[in-house]
Specification:
Elements lengths: L6 H17 L2 H8 L7 H10 L18 H13 L6 H15 L2 H13 L4 E4 L5 H4 L19 E6 L2 E12 L6 E8 L6 E7 L4 E5 L8 E13 L7 H37 L1 E2 L2 E2 L4 H27 L7 H22 L11 H15 L2 H11 L11
Parallel strand pairs: 1-4
Antiparallel strand pairs: 2-3, 3-7, 4-5, 5-7, 6-7, 8-9
């Protein structure tokens, strides 16, 4: 493995950081999350049309750049540094790979060019709070999380040659503003239970919910007899595709969390250098130095794990969940230290420290807590299985 980045990868990182430094400061983030969409359309236009971020990991045949998950992860590391609210995660990380993996040729040709250009945004709608399960991050995703054939969840029925959807999905990332919904629904009846994915272009009731992390807008989707289009064919391996997308998404999320943790550490170091107490900068106290040194070591370790996870996706290795666990734990620690070491100002609504702490907590609610991510990784690797010893 060559751990060095290419010139193109370094340029992607530098360009995205420069743009966000000018257009996505703390006040810009606060203003964007208060809009109806939850993000700044002008900034999204720059990220999509000028920088081409939604199409980084899409094939050139569909208007993308033909890059890998690594390039997309590096771009998301920079968006994570400033907590930039945008539909990049929901569109390019969670939804576009499913369209590419499962869609028919006609569906790919129809939808992916719009996603690559940023004209079309998309969201993955999973019933209840089962996103982490659906993506196979905290448990097996071949169960009945989409509805189970009984009341609740999302149901799909076929009548007169068309699919109709019924049910409700909560905590849908960017679901209130997405131009396309990819909905996971149960079909086949209780005896022949299975989960399929459907495309919903219009219809239903979308309500934006109050979220712990305002930079991750969430919505509740209610569908009542809404016409839908089956994604791909009814024989596709939906759980397998979701698991593959989940691992890649975890690697990207890990890089995003590392960017946020690095920024939280950076602002804290800058603050303790200028904040004085007892006639000297508090950053000169040994206890403060040790605390920040520990955070620095954790950030570097999490960054290495995140980069490896992004690189490993091209080799078929699935270590994204473990890297995400380490990155989220690091972000929670870095944000917690930022709040503490900023003193009284760190606890105020006006300071940005709490936004990073909420990002860590909010991502754990959406994609799985640190201990559950690690437990599932250990179960998958059969780490704690008892082995018979020959006598």
């Amino acid at each position: 493995m060559d751990a060095r980045f290419t010139a193109e990868q370094d340029e992607i990182r530098r360009t995205v950081r420069d743009v966000l430094a000018r257009r996505c400061g703390p006040q810009d983030v606060r203003a964007a999350v208060d809009t109806d969409t939850g993000y700044d359309p002008a900034l999204w236009d720059v990220l999509a049309r000028r920088l081409g971020l939604p199409g980084l990991a899409l094939p050139e045949a569909y208007g993308g750049s033909g890059c890998t998950t690594t390039e997309l992860a590096l771009a998301c590391e920079e968006t994570g540094r400033c907590l930039a609210p945008s539909p990049l995660l929901s569109t390019a990380v969670l939804t576009a790979p499913l369209l590419l993996a499962l869609g028919t040729d006609a569906q790919r040709a129809d939808l992916l060019p719009g996603i690559a250009s940023g004209e079309l945004t998309a969201a993955l709608a999973v019933p209840g709070t089962a996103l982490a399960t659906a993506l196979c991050l905290t448990g097996d995703n071949r169960g009945a999380w989409a509805g189970g054939g009984r009341a609740g969840g999302m149901q799909a029925r076929r009548a007169d040659g068309a699919w109709r959807l019924y049910g409700e999905a909560g905590q849908v990332l960017d679901g209130h503003s997405a131009g396309l919904l990819v909905v996971a629904a149960h079909t086949g009846g209780f005896a022949r239970s299975r989960t399929l994915l459907f495309l919903v272009r219009e219809g239903g009731v979308r309500t934006r919910e109050t979220a712990l992390d305002a930079t991750r807008p969430l919505a509740r989707i209610q569908l009542r007899d809404v016409e839908a289009e089956l994604l791909g064919e009814d024989r596709t391996d939906v759980p397998g595709a979701l698991a593959a997308v989940g691992d890649r998404a975890a690697a990207v999320l890990a890089c995003e969390a590392v960017g946020a943790a690095d920024r939280a550490l950076e602002t804290t170091v800058a603050y303790v250098k200028r904040r004085e107490q007892f006639g000297r900068a508090i950053g000169s106290f040994q206890a403060v130095k040790h605390r920040l040194a520990d955070v620095y070591v954790r950030v570097q370790a999490a960054r290495s794990a995140a980069y490896y996870a992004a690189w490993a996706t091209a080799r078929g290795e699935r270590v994204g969940g473990l890297a995400l666990a380490q990155a989220l734990g690091t972000l929670r620690t870095a944000a917690g230290e930022a709040v503490q070491l900023h003193g009284g100002i760190g606890f105020t609504w006006e300071h940005e420290a709490h936004l990073y702490f909420k990002r860590a907590a909010g991502d754990e609610l959406l994609f799985g807590s640190v201990h559950r991510l690690r437990a599932h990784a250990a179960d998958t690797a059969r780490l704690f299985e008892e082995k018979e010893v020959a006598v």
